[in-house]
Design goal:
The complex is a heterodimer of chains A (336) and B (371). By secondary structure, chain A is α/β, with parallel strands linked by helices. Chain A contains twelve helices and 14 strands. In chain A, the strands form three sheets. In chain A, strands 3-2-4-5-7-6-12 form a seven-stranded mixed beta sheet, sandwiched between helices. In chain A, strand 13, helix 10 and strand 14 form a beta-alpha-beta unit. The longest helix of chain A has 15 residues. Chain A is globular and about 65 Å long. Chain B has 371 residues and is an alpha/beta fold. Chain B is 45% helix and 8% strand. Chain B contains 15 helices and seven strands. In chain B, the strands form two sheets. Chain B has a five-stranded parallel beta sheet with strand order 1-2-3-7-6, sandwiched between helices. In chain B, helix 2 runs antiparallel to helix 13 and helix 2 runs parallel beside helix 14. Classes of the chains: A alpha/beta (336), B alpha/beta (371). Bound molecules: thiamine diphosphate. Thiamine diphosphate binds next to strand 4 of chain B.
């Protein structure tokens, strides 16, 4: 066990993947000498050379499109998009090429591409540096979508993503890059739980609180706070947004009968909507209350000084918990 | 220092600014720098190119006919572009890898396509018409220009493998306006990747004339990216082959990317869904008929006594045979069963999709039990 920040864990994951397979090459802006703007690729240029740690021209479609060609040639490219809001110029290559080539060619062309995206808000960043575009990718068949919440998962699932023969959109909550946790650096990949599995982070019997990425931390705080009021919240970290591990989710909902799903991304047609629809289809008869969403608003990501009003916080989560428990809450009629 | 004057619009249209080895009337024109690249092309080899072009035109006509008869959803004709496609594709080495657009019927023909390969995608049976590994040709690309980046990435892989293969990409004049094509040239030049860009300037991007995409000869852009380029007469199969051999040799020698603009003309509609009479003058088409790439080689071969009626009949029979096989393959295609829609979305199991597949299988099963 080694204590690492989430950022260092990702770097260690990349290093391990590159050692394990010499077909793994990294592409991105500033990932060489600088080590990436978040220093995730720090030291990898020195260790693996410029043929495997490729500083690219400043063109996102170019980066992903080039990765597609490398995959045709038998490589396993790992792309770094510098910030979430800059993935849009590459959107066409991702959804029309990366996601589809395996299907179009009936499996004859593989796209084992991992697209790493420093993701989401809460760090007071400039415009376009705090976006949550995950729903676009979850909606795209052919992609897998991973969102990590802690160093151990980051290390393991990044290696799994790179080893996967499918393309993976890999979301890294930049708010957590400096958060520390224990990582099993030597653990063989084969013994690890599969990439697509959700994880119960905290057991509870009253409400299932589902989150991913940095929101998992907020959900855990909510569970702790609720304990003081004798409410036992079960917190689930989805970890994988495509596919979602509905077996784990449904098992929890059958136990608690009450569900809150939280994410930073805006609400309309978001991941929470999908998760709740699927829960309703699968275990409607177990539900004691209508499932609720706690999400960002349906607004462009606000300026840094206002982001705290957009991001779901502890209080908004607890309010939703109160609502599914039918306890006094923001929707209760005042004075009634 | 006096300001540089940059040539604009007029020269973009000036066909005399293209390199050529065969004049429209079939006269062989000596060309000091291109001749060495086709020194080995004797009359028999030229006749083989002529044969390829005839067969390609026949395949293309069959594609149009099959579409008109309701057998294909769409077809993208390449009539008029035979010299560009055959001339460049016949210059490739077996190990080279091609990233084409949707119009490169002649390129997949030259790479050894099976009869069904021409129609499988257009008929809607499969997402790609041919096996990319077998032909070393990526699936036909519909998104304009996307494939140029794939070629550059592939070429980067060639560099990393220390191999001497070349990646080749085909695209149209309209595609040169796309960001991806420009990004591809930047990436190719940055890494000195062994990739050859072949722009088939067929003068039209559906209804948009080439002048709307470029006010300067398209080949003239490449040097601005640090890529040497050649502008050739795309209706001259010899010139196309010579240019491609030049470009391939350049890339194979480790000198980085090369760019060819083949100036040609799309004689028919953009696709079978298009109506060129709405935007194109009949007189323009007439002018290009006189530059027909096939007539040109035929005139040359006849003038040197290398094409007689026996050859001509043999070639026509070969073309008819290919078309017949293509038609039979098309009509004989068996659509896969319903659950095949779920096949190969992912390389590894995906629980969400598997659930949907099971649900749909259950639904389909209800019809069986109903009897
Ligand atoms: C990104 C994109 N935009 C629009 C289209 C629709 N479209 C198909 S072909 C075409 C014209 C392309 O012209 P050009 O690149 O000159 O190639 P040509 O068809 O003449 O061979 C257009 C606009 C498309 N396929 N992809």
């Amino acid at each position: 066990m080694t204590e690492l920040t989430l950022g260092k864990a990702l770097g260690a994951g990349l290093r391990q993947a590159m050692q394990d397979d010499d077909k793994v090459v990294l592409l991105g802006e500033d990932i060489g000498k600088l080590g990436g703007v978040f220093r995730i690729t720090d030291g990898l240029l020195d260790e693996f050379g410029a043929k495997r740690v490729i500083d690219t021209p400043l063109a996102e479609s170019g980066i992903v499109g080039t990765a597609v060609g490398l995959a045709f040639r038998g490589y396993r490219p790992v792309v770094e998009i510098q910030f979430d809001g800059f993935v849009y110029p590459a959107f066409d290559q991702i959804v029309a090429q990366v996601a589809k080539l395996h299907y179009r060619t009936q499996g004859r062309v593989k796209m084992p591409i991992t697209i790493r995206i420093p993701w989401a808000g809460g760090i007071g960043a400039a415009e376009h540096h705090s976006e949550s575009p995950e729903a676009y990718f979850v909606h795209t068949a052919g992609l897998r979508v991973i969102a990590v919440s802690n160093p151990e998962d980051a290390y393991r699932s990044l290696r799994q993503a790179i080893a996967s023969d499918d393309p993976v959109i890999f979301f890294e909550p930049k708010r957590l890059y400096h958060h520390k946790g224990d990582v099993h650096l030597g653990a063989p990949l084969a013994d690890a739980p599969p990439m697509g599995l959700a994880r119960v982070m905290r057991a509870g019997s009253d409400v299932t609180l589902i989150a991913y990425g940095a929101m998992v931390g907020t959900a855990l705080q909510a569970a702790e706070a609720a304990e003081d009021e004798d409410v036992a919240i079960e917190v689930i970290d989805l970890r994988s947004l495509s596919p979602v591990d509905y077996d784990s989710v449904a098992a929890s909902v059958r136990k608690t009968g009450r569900v809150v799903v939280a994410h930073e991304a805006s609400r309309e047609a978001g991941v929470a909507a999908e998760v709740i629809a699927s829960i309703t289809e699968r275990c409607f008869e177990y539900l004691e209350a209508a499932p609720l969403r706690v999400t960002g608003h349906d607004i462009p990501y606000p300026p840094a000084k206002l982001e705290k009003y957009h991001l779901p916080d502890l209080d908004r989560l607890l309010d939703a918990v109160d609502r599914v428990l039918d306890r006094p809450n923001s929707m209760s009629e005042v004075g009634a | 220092m006096s300001p540089q004057i940059t040539p604009i619009a007029d020269s973009a249209q000036d066909l005399e600014l293209t390199e050529r080895l065969l004049a429209p009337d079939g006269t062989r024109i000596p060309h000091a720098s291109l001749d060495p690249f086709v020194a080995d092309i004797d009359a028999a080899a030229l006749r083989a190119l002529y044969r390829d072009m005839i067969i390609l035109r026949r395949i293309d006509a069959e594609g149009v006919a099959l579409q008109r008869q309701g057998q294909l959803g769409l077809w993208a004709p390449c009539q008029g572009q035979e010299a560009t496609q055959i001339g460049t594709a016949r210059a490739l080495a077996p190990q080279d890898y091609v990233f084409p657009s949707y119009r490169e019927t002649g390129v997949i023909y030259a790479r050894g396509a099976e009869p069904g390969d021409y129609v499988r995608m257009w008929r809607g049976e499969e997402g790609a018409g041919h096996d990319p590994a077998a032909l070393r040709v990526a699936p036909l690309q519909i998104i304009i220009g996307a494939q140029t980046l794939h070629a550059v990435g592939y070429a980067l892989g060639i560099l990393h493998d220390d191999a001497d293969d070349v990646a080749v990409t085909y695209f149209g004049d309209g595609a040169t306006s796309q960001g991806d094509v420009n990004e591809a040239m930047i990436f190719a030049a940055s890494y000195q990747a062994p990739v050859v860009f072949v722009c088939q300037n067929n003068h039209w991007a559906i209804s948009e004339p080439v002048a709307l995409q470029s006010q300067y000869p398209i080949a003239g852009r490449a040097p601005g990216f640090g890529i040497p380029s050649l502008r050739v007469d795309g209706n001259d199969v010899l010139a196309c082959m010579a240019a491609m051999r030049w470009a391939l040799a350049h890339a194979r020698a480790g000198k980085g990317p090369a760019y060819i603009e083949a100036v040609t003309y799309r004689m028919g509609p953009h696709t079978t869904a298009d109506d060129p009479t709405r935007y194109r003058d009949e007189s323009e088409l007439e002018g290009w008929r006189r530059r027909d790439p096939i007539t040109r080689v035929e005139a040359h071969l006849r003038s040197i006594g290398e094409l007689d009626e026996t050859h001509a009949a043999e070639i026509q029979a070969a073309a008819d045979k290919v078309a017949k096989e293509m038609r039979a393959a098309c009509l004989g295609m068996v659509t896969r069963p319903p659950l095949a829609v779920f096949d190969e979305v992912y390389a590894e199991p995906h629980s969400g999709l598997e659930r949907q597949r099971d649900e749909y299988a259950g639904y389909l099963a209800t019809f069986e039990t109903e009897g």
